[in-house]
Amino acid sequence: MPQPAVLIAPDGPARPIEQLRIPTDLSGAAGTNRARGAIRLVSAGDDLSAITAWLARYADVPGTVAVYRKEAERLLLWVVIQHGKPLSSLTHEDLLVYQRFLADPQPAWRWVMSVRKKPGRASPDWRPFAGPLSPTSIRHAMTILNAMFAWLVDAGYLAGNPLSLTRRRGVATKPAITRYLTHEWWGVVKTTIETLPAGTERERLHAARCRWLFTVLYLAGLRATEIASTPMGAVFCRRDAAGVERWWIEVRGKGNRTRLVPATDELIAELARYRRAHGLPPSPYRGEMRPLLLPLIGQEKPLSRGAVHLIVKEVFALAAARLRARGPEWLAQADQLAGASAHWVRHTAGSHMSDQKVDLRFVRDNLGHASLATTSVYLHAEDDARHAATQALHRLGWV
User: Fold this and answer.
1) Number of folded domains in the chain?
2) Do residues 223 and 244 touch, judged by C-beta distance below 8 A?
3) Does 261 have pLDDT greater than 90?
């Protein structure tokens, strides 16, 4: 976060934190929860500097920085603009108030975007929220903030973590993933993509991109961040011990870890189809830096993670409208589908692979839920078994 530049406006809309100059009495320089006499491990003298130091730990993981900054920024803006006290003076009771605020950010004109397309941070239409957060999103936000407060305590900036008093449920069996698409919904999404308009050149390329994007999300189980950062040249062919050619995608995922994801024959055929739509040869060459997901116009620059999410959300909105057209009994399901995201497709891929009895160890490695052992370079036979199982049992089935 760069140094703020504009005096905070208590009666105006919330602005990105880098555009604000926080008054001294709200900066946290003299917060009531500041550590006194403790060993200081960071040089931060105010709340904004302390948050910046916390975020700097994740500088090599841009997706994590974006998510963590969003939650820290929301809290800092709320506490300064609306709650009227420094972040480093927050009590447990204050954070209970904030938790309720997340479920209904009011006044909406100050906190909630009024435009459909997400504006840039420099836009006067920018707001910290797109709308109320779901219970799951609220829990996720509070978990991130709890980690931030715990680190600020460990760093000697805060005396205590005001979220450490939060009631903890007993450890129970891990709940099943619920944010995934049923086979019914997945069929509606596929039909929606297959019937996208293609009357103009732009519409044709957009339809091709949507089909390819959902192919990679589903068949490869990639994260939106991974799709945005992976080049075409990461798709390569390797012969196994029997001379059989198998295609793979080399992905750099969470924690900067690299994994190999099976690229099934179906996925490779869809890649060839997508490349031909752009007038490219059907197969990528090793080291090709052209992005895995191409922009419709202009230079072949990689799309941002946010742009990938917008494309996915647009498709889900159209699919939800298709469900609503079936009748009032589908309205609730349509609303759920409209709230889906790219990560839902990843969960769907994992769920459908499990449904088809793909070995769970292979599902784990395909989705990157565990790092590869340092000896995996010698385990090509095991990799090939994972590829064969994925290809035989995990299919998308475009018409």
Assistant:
1) 2
2) no
3) no
